[in-house]
Amino acid sequence: MTEPRPQDAPRRRATGARRPASAPAPEPPSTRAPRRGVARFGRQSAPWAFLAPAVVLFALFLAAPIGYSVYLSFRTEKVSGLGLGSGSRQEVWNGAANYVSAVADPEFLASVGRVALYGLIVVPVMLGSALLFALLLDARRTRARRFGRIAIFLPYAVPAVISSLLWGFLYLPGVSPFYWVFERLGWSVPSLFSSNLVMFAVANIAIWGGIGFNMVVIYTSLRSIPSELYEAAELDGASQVGIAWRIKIPIVVPSIIMTFVFSMIATLQVFAEPTTLRPLSNSISTTWTPLMKVYRDAFTRGDLYSAAATSVVIAVATFVISFGFLRLVQARAFGQEER
Amino acid sequence: MRLTPGTQAGAILAATALLAAGCSAGADSADGPGDAPDPTGPVELTFWTWAPNIEKVVDLWNADNPDIQVVVNKQDGGDPAVTKLLTAIEAGSGAPDIMQAEYQKIPQLVSNDAVADISGQLSDDTPGHFADGVWNAVTLGTDAVYAVPQDSGPMQFYYRADIFEKYNLDVPATWDEYAEVAMMLHEQDPDKYLGTFSANDAGWFVGLTQQAGASWYGIEGDAWAVDIDSPEVTRVAEYWGGLVEDGVIDNKPMYTPEWNQGLNDGTQVGWLSAIWAPGVLEGNAPDTAGKWEMAPMPQWDENAEATGAWGGSATAVTSQSEHPEQAAKFIEWMNTDPVAVQALVDESGLYPADIPGSEDALAEPPAFFSNQENFYEIAAQTAQTTQPFTYGPNINVAYSAYNDEFAKATEARSADAFVAAVEAMQQVTVDDLTNSGFDVAE
């Protein structure tokens, strides 16, 4: 590979140091010692007792609802005649028909396309800015580091619905202080809710809210780099930018990959921002994102069955994309630990 | 990304707490029936409603009827309450005894078996209290009675009398005049609009088409007919599309902070709205008190006065109620007794559906329109011209199609796009009915 040397060296050193520590791990000594029956029973059941609350909660609040959604996704409701009076509605088996119509629905495909575009805007801008902020905070001469960190992180603490409402006000020309200023300056700025700009309006909220979290993750991993590395690099005549580019960024790649996966999943699930902005605009449809379509089908149209099918499709896609991506970058992401 | 370990822990804690609460609630309700098996003892009825201050009306009943006590449970407006009710019906428990429901939701509730037929429980003269169109909305044209009408929302035209005077405009009596006035106003002050076409309010558009003589659904024998792309609806859509295309009226949605501001600062000069408009104006445009006036809606045909309805609701007994007889007695009282009707006007600010009671109850104009002595006189005249209209079992689908299709059309600002939106709504609604297995007449 064409990678520069200074980055390979520390990695080899680090893994080299770790290997002897983990290699001689012997079998746990406890299995060898003989003991009495009661104690063994107690010891064997203890882990189960500790696990039980988690298993019960998992089964009740994760496995059961997922199972029920999958079950619902294969069913549908059939109405007879006018559908008035009791007993005119019946739940019946529907095979894979819900899945077929979910995947073939042009509105669903359009929403997937929209989310893909949205992701192309949000993820690079958000992670790029997060990395930049992390590097700036980590730089030697940065002042008010603690304040800067909190200030950048703060938007993450604002719930998405609240931040969308606040931004919504700022986007509406009639009430926005920005538009008021633009008008006084004689500029005509197009409404951010017009159909060709609304994507950026929504993306901006996600970026604003997400930078802080990702910055903290990257920053934390930057802080764990031993400072000897920088001293060595400085002795070799590297500039601060050079150190950032050649040492810091390669070392935080695993964190960037992790934040990338998180951001990708969040992108696939975008819901709160466009849903909150929708009443303010003509440019956001009720099926603007895949999850909004699920919500509309389930609660506006009362069709739980096709909503269940669509949500299973989204869940599987999210799973495949995130694990597929992790597999693809495994060597790069976890190379330090496993090589 | 937003599920940090902290929130996860919080969610698990909350879930555990919910589980515990669920268990204890279950235990409580298991005890409940055991305590009150006595049929002669007092019954307690729960009432889901969102009308402001309605508990004061209910208090009047509770004071006189110690054996039938009604407990008000406030809900968040029409749609969420209906979703909640349908969920409770599906789950088999948790529904209230009495439910406030907007007229357009009744077919959906009936079709989901959520409301009881109370035709056997009402007095014979109950139907005579209501206009035929309103009564039809609670019977769906059948012999059954699924609810008792509570309030209605006949539409009128609200306008800023002071601004009309300033620009020397006449109150439009026909839609042609409305278009003319909209143009004259916008030409004199490009910031001002006589109204906005809101793609977010399907109920509003229904009212406009109802005035023009449209009825979106109908029953033909044993099948539903969908008539959203009728000539009447298309005509209304084309008319408004033309106004938006010419830029003489606004295309922004109603009920946004920007629109509220527009009402308050005089950029929105007129509003086609329903009888409950004074309350909204008072809340959203407090600075304009005494500057608004109300007139009948502009007409398509000057010789045949007509109006539509936006909103309005009825009170139903749910299919889960264990005391449907007592519940029916209460809702009949609340919506037809003169004392109760007066209280609905005074306390909740409703325009009652009850005809005999409303004449006395509506003597004074609403405070926000104290400048217009004959407010309720005009209202009574327009209310009588409300056109018949049938809502269908998947009106929710038609409404969400309205949001999407007309959002595109208003953004495109073209009359052709408005007509296309009507056609798309028809298609979506028919497809949904067919897919659900309803019999649909071609």
Automatic annotation (TrEMBL), chain A:
UniProt topology in membrane: Multi-pass membrane protein
Segments for region (Disordered): 1-37
Transmembrane helix listed as a keyword: yes
GO cellular component annotations of the record: plasma membrane
SUPFAM superfamilies, sorted: MetI-like (SSF161098)
Alphabetized InterPro entries for the sequence: MetI-like, MetI-like_sf, UgpAE/MalFG_permease
Subcellular location per the Swiss-Prot or TrEMBL entry: Cell membrane
Family statement drawn from the similarity comment of this UniProt entry: Belongs to the binding-protein-dependent transport system permease family.
Protein name: Carbohydrate ABC transporter membrane protein 1 (CUT1 family)
Organism: Myceligenerans xiligouense
From TrEMBL, chain B:
Pfam family, one: SBP_bac_1
Xref: InterPro entries: Bact_solute-bd_prot1, SBP
Keyword annotations from UniProtKB, A to Z: Cell membrane, Lipoprotein, Membrane, Palmitate, Signal
Signal peptide as annotated in the record: 1-20
Superkingdom in the source lineage: Bacteria
Listed transmembrane segments: none
Name of the protein in question: Carbohydrate ABC transporter substrate-binding protein (CUT1 family)
Organism, as annotated: Myceligenerans xiligouense
